[in-house]
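User: quick one - fold this with iron/sulfur cluster bound?
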Amino acid sequence: MNKPNLLISECLCGVCCRYDGDHNQIDRLEELKDLYNLIPICPEVMGGLSTPRPPAERVGNLVKTENGIDVTEQFQRGAALALQIAIDRKCMRALLKAKSPSCGYGEIYDGTFTRTLVNGIGVTSELLLQHDISIYTEKNVQDLIMQNSDD
Ligand code: SF4
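Assistant: Sure. Structure tokens for the protein plus iron/sulfur cluster:
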């Protein structure tokens, strides 16, 4: 059986690329590997930001650090590179890290750095969605696994 390619946030694979140098490895990684070829991406690192780096949040169409540094350009560059990889590798689905200003989907932090969530989407998730790539987060990995078994 040919496994489909799945774009995945690199921090969900256990890579320490988070802003604070940590990772968010998910429990069901091995199960996912059985069903998909995982294509890891970290848009913030790909966009030119270092690890660790100051936390950033979306403020409208901009992304800024708590000190007001505008990192929108790096976030957009990373999103464009992630999209190109998704297209090149024919990824129809992406499993991305919830709440992130790059990878979040459904809700993100509101730009006040007070851990307040609002309805919203990360810069990369938004671009992928505009190109008809289905977005999942670590909160609904189960749906992704069920979806594959229905293919
Ligand atoms: Fe994880 Fe995405 Fe943030 Fe990279 S940009 S650390 S992949 S949530």
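One thing worth noting: Residues 72-88 form the longest helix (17 residues).
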